[in-house]
Design goal:
The complex is a heterotrimer. By secondary structure, chain A is an alpha/beta fold. Chain A contains 10 helices and 8 strands. Chain B is mostly helical. In chain B, helix 2 runs parallel beside helix 8 and helix 12 packs parallel to helix 15. Classes of the chains: A alpha/beta, B mainly alpha, C mainly beta.
């Protein structure tokens, strides 16, 4: 074989083959990747830039991620500055004009939903490490997940008109399936509507709102700040007064503090996965929410 | 919730952590005299890093060996195993005089840290809070951790109280001890093994930085204030216990992170000794 | 981990979030429209307490913060003000102004194209030359305090930089392979006048394993020296290895660069010849709050009457109270040719306020 064709065939072999898929979709998180797979089916090849067990604030802007973005037909991000620390330089390096913020190949999931915890007054960093644009942890509300999936389908349809009908049908199917699941999940949580809970941080605002639970306190006095013991004593009093039965902590955090408050107030610790892919079994959106609801109901049960 | 009355009322919140802090403070303060005089102040950093490495190894081989790393008792056992082994190796290194003690400790620390990163990049999926397996937060100390700390503290202090003379002799004048025919290697091993035993349960109860601080600052303060060894040991243990307890109480009243407050209080104890040393000049 | 938890805000959020209500359109349009159009503004300040055993200014000229021999000296290093924004759909602009003890200046100010075809990207303006690794980064991104001696002596005392154009091509291969060609006016070494400069830089990154990235780069530059047929050629090789298990904040990096400078055709032929230097450093970030590092540097000595290599060994401990502040303690042992050594210690403080664009890897 002549050396040049050999080199060419080697390069061709290295180019990832997306057999049959017509769109390369890159998402910033595993949760968004799960939705993209549900909506896109085999017309899309989905790559996530981070894993579900990774803190999405602190992903390394490894230049090889820029190479993935160069080849992206669509970039799906969460928005609300969640990825501010690492996504912008990668998008700049990608040479992909379409995925710049606001352009036609960029879909920011937060744009499809109503955002909670948007500060209404001036904010600064003395309040802890905060999200001035609003709370970006919205995928644990199934209604918002469906809204994101439908908006994503519309975006995919505009980029790939030949598959438009398929995307819409799959999104409708996703909405129907999750709708049915939602009835099941809400039924499992129904006995606990209106109950008070305590969370480690405000990551569960959307979940609590959806499930009809009231968050009456946080284990951390400010986001990312270790609680002094007096704060825990306060939380124990709050938990007793408000009859809190569950203290929510994401699986990758230490549960010692939560366990102390739980023990003294008679509550239980609910260890919930933070995103799709955060545990071995939470492989898709449905499985992830199943785990969340199971952990919640398990902790809230009398 | 920050007044003294509220503090007394909330006894259930503080009784276990405060007891753990006092035990850890006294234990570390006492052992700190050896650590400071033998110039191995980073020994706690190196040994806890070795514990982390051991836990990662345990997680990687978890399924093959059939150990349940999720259980706190298993975590502590693995941490103690690696810590004691590491301490004995450091002791050998030190006895051999091939390296200055601090250099050996520093190398062990950095190499264990690097190895821990290399090894933990192997497990991509399962989420583990490695830090929480080795280090506590001084605020929430489960009863199991408190009992383990108390039990191991008794095990550590027993040889120190029974064989004080031998340990002190070998630790501070190894040459003479060897010349007199004492089994210096054995006593040196006992000394390092007790360090290796004491550090993991203390770190698991009160955290990394307080452990490091209580192992160095009270002993340094006692060395500045007292002249004779028995008084130095007693004062270091007392200062350690007081620093830990006062730090806990202050963190309650002025609402600061607990571990950091303990470190700050222990640091304050250096002031009178420092002033006394300046005046003595 | 970044939320607002003020009770008042939560209450406001709760009131606004009665689910079925649609968000009402605000009366009178958006009152914050002008604010929305502002570029990202940020400021980075750095200063240090320094102590040098030797009189560094004379025996070891450099750009690091240093003080008079034997005294603890507070120094102000730099205040950097950054203005960053997208210009239009085709380009973005980044402006970095610097204020330092000698005055004020423009550190960098350039346009970057956003969507050129064929993997091309052009930067134009005044910019740091695409030569090696540290030269392109701003000092507040560096792990250690101060420019490595070989970089200051062989490239330029304050980074190789100046007005010009940089064309970068991202090769259509499945790993990161970027080729830079730049034409600039730069001021090398300890010189004062600018020189026409051509720079080439080939940079590659490989994902060696999950969480492990290897970067290798080669650089070359040719600068016009005064006099016919006189040239200054610079060569560089850089290596970067980062191991970061994805689930945590801990990581380990190993980084090194080699520099060579060749002068030829000078009026004084005695100055012709090649000089070599380099550094190798490792950083271990233990968790979100602590990091430790070690560095070795070797550079041609620059003090009067000194020839041969100057070697410096450095240990570093860094405390990050938050993402926006860092406090570094750096201790070095600087060994001049002939065996004279001098200890150096630095306690450096750094802060960042405002919205500062994230940096490339």
């Amino acid at each position: 074989m002549h050396p040049i064709p050999r080199l060419a065939s080697l390069l061709l072999a290295l180019v990832p083959a997306a057999a049959g898929a017509s769109l390369q979709v890159v998402t910033t998180t595993d949760g968004l990747a799960a939705l993209a797979r549900d909506v896109g089916g085999d017309r899309v090849a989905v790559t996530a830039l981070s894993h579900g067990n990774q803190d999405p604030h602190f992903v390394d802007p490894n230049p090889n991620l820029a190479v993935k973005l160069r080849d992206a037909d669509l970039l799906v991000d969460v928005g609300l500055d969640l990825e501010i620390g690492w996504l912008p330089p990668l998008v700049n390096q990608s040479r992909n004009a379409g995925i710049q913020p606001g352009n036609e190949r960029r879909f920011t999931a937060a744009s499809a939903i109503r955002v909670l915890d948007v500060p209404t007054g001036p904010v600064d960093r003395s309040l802890g490490d905060l999200h001035p644009a609003g709370n970006p942890h919205f995928l644990d509300d199934p209604r918002r997940a469906v809204e994101v999936a439908q908006a994503m389908a519309a975006k995919l349809a505009s980029l790939d008109p030949a598959g438009a009908a398929g995307y819409r049908a799959r999104a409708a199917d996703f909405a129907r399936r999750i709708g049915a699941d939602e009835q099941r999940w809400l039924a499992a949580l129904k006995p606990f509507r209106g109950q008070a809970i305590i969370a480690k941080h405000p990551t569960v605002t959307y979940l609590a709102r959806w499930a009809g639970l009231r968050i009456v306190g946080y284990l951390e006095p400010k986001p990312g700040v270790e609680p002094p013991p007096s704060h825990l004593a306060e939380m124990v009093e709050v938990a007793r007064a408000q009859k809190v039965r569950a203290i929510l902590v994401e699986t990758y955090y230490d549960t010692r503090t939560a366990a102390l408050v739980a023990k003294l107030s008679g509550a239980r610790v609910a260890s919930i996965p933070g995103d799709v892919g955060a545990s071995r079994t939470a492989t898709g959106y449905q499985a992830y929410m199943d785990e969340v609801v199971k952990a919640l109901a398990g902790a809230l049960a009398p | 919730m920050s007044g003294f009355g509220a503090f007394l009322e909330a006894r259930e919140i503080w009784q276990d952590p405060l007891l753990a802090a006092v035990i850890a403070g006294a234990l570390l303060g006492f052992l700190g005299v050896y650590v400071v005089l033998r110039r191995t102040v980073f020994v706690s950093a190196a040994l806890t890093q070795l514990s982390t490495l051991g836990l990662i190894a345990a997680i990687v081989t978890e399924e093959r060996l059939g150990v349940a790393v999720e259980r706190p008792s298993v975590q502590l056992a693995v941490a103690v195993l690696f810590s004691v082994t590491g301490a004995l190796l450091l002791g050998r290194l030190h006895a051999g005089r091939r390296l200055p003690a601090e250099a050996g400790v520093g190398m062990a620390w950095v190499l264990a840290g690097a190895a821990a990163i290399l090894a933990s990049s192997r497990f991509v999926h399962a989420a583990h809070d490695m830090d929480a397996m080795v280090f506590g937060n001084a605020v929430a100390v489960p009863l199991g951790d408190l009992l383990a700390l108390a039990g191991l503290a008794a095990v550590v202090l027993a040889p120190h109280l029974l064989f004080t003379k031998e340990l002190v002799f070998v630790a501070f004048d190894g040459e003479t001890a060897r010349a007199m025919g004492m089994p210096a290697g054995l006593w040196n091993g006992v000394l390092y093994a007790t360090l290796g035993l004491a550090i993991p349960p203390a770190a698991r109860a009160i955290g990394a930085l307080p452990t490091f601080a209580l192992l160095t600052l009270p002993a340094s303060a006692a060395l500045l204030l007292a002249g004779r060894l028995p008084r130095i040991f007693a004062l270091a243990a007392a200062l350690g216990a007081v620093a830990a307890a006062a730090g806990y109480f202050l963190s309650w009243t002025i609402q600061l992170p607990t571990g950091a407050t303990m470190v700050a209080v222990a640091g304050l104890f250096l002031v009178p000794g420092g002033v006394a040393a300046l005046l003595r000049r | 981990m970044r939320y607002v938890v003020l009770a008042g805000l939560l209450a406001a959020g709760a009131a606004a979030a009665q689910e079925p209500q649609a968000a009402a359109a605000p009366l009178g349009g958006n009152p914050f429209a002008r604010v929305l159009m502002l570029p990202d503004v940020s400021a980075i300040g750095s200063g240090a307490l320094v102590w040098n055993q030797k009189d560094v200014r004379v025996v070891s000229p450099r750009s690091d913060p240093y003080g008079p021999g034997g005294k603890v000296q507070p120094v102000f290093q730099e205040l950097e003000v950054a203005l960053q924004s997208v210009v239009d759909p085709y380009a973005r602009a980044d402006v970095f102004l610097t204020f330092h003890p000698d005055g004020a200046g423009v550190e960098e100010a350039y346009l970057t194209t956003l969507g050129l075809p064929a993997g091309l990207q052009i930067r134009a303006g005044t910019l740091k030359s695409p030569f090696g690794r540290l030269n392109q980064q701003h000092p507040h991104v560096w792990d250690f305090v101060g420019t490595p001696l070989p970089m200051a002596r062989l490239l330029a005392v304050d980074a190789l930089e100046g007005p010009g154009v940089d064309v970068a091509w991202l090769a259509p291969v499945p790993w990161f392979l970027e080729l830079h060609l730049a034409y600039q006016d730069t001021v090398p070494g300890f010189e004062t006048a600018g020189r026409r400069t051509g720079v080439a830089h080939l940079l590659q990154y490989f994902d060696v394993a999950e969480g492990t990235t290897l970067g290798v780069g080669l650089s070359a530059a040719r600068l016009d020296e005064p006099g016919a047929g006189a040239w200054r050629d610079l060569y560089g090789a850089d290596l970067f290895l980062k191991i970061r298990p994805p689930q945590g904040r801990a990581y380990l990096t190993l980084q090194g660069e080699l520099f060579a400078r060749r002068l030829s055709g000078l009026a004084d032929p005695a100055q012709d010849g090649t000089r070599l230097g380099g550094y190798l450093q490792a950083l271990w970030r233990q968790d979100a709050y602590w990091g430790y590092g070690a560095r070795w540097e070797s550079a041609p000595a620059a003090g009067p009457g000194l020839s041969g290599a100057e070697n410096r060994w450095t240990a570093l401990a860094t405390w990050y109270p938050s993402e926006f502040q860092r406090l570094r303690l750096q201790v070095s042992d600087d060994r001049l040719p002939g065996g004279s050594t001098g200890w150096e210690a630095l306690l450096a403080m750094e802060f960042i306020i405002g919205a500062h664009g994230a940096h490339p890897f």
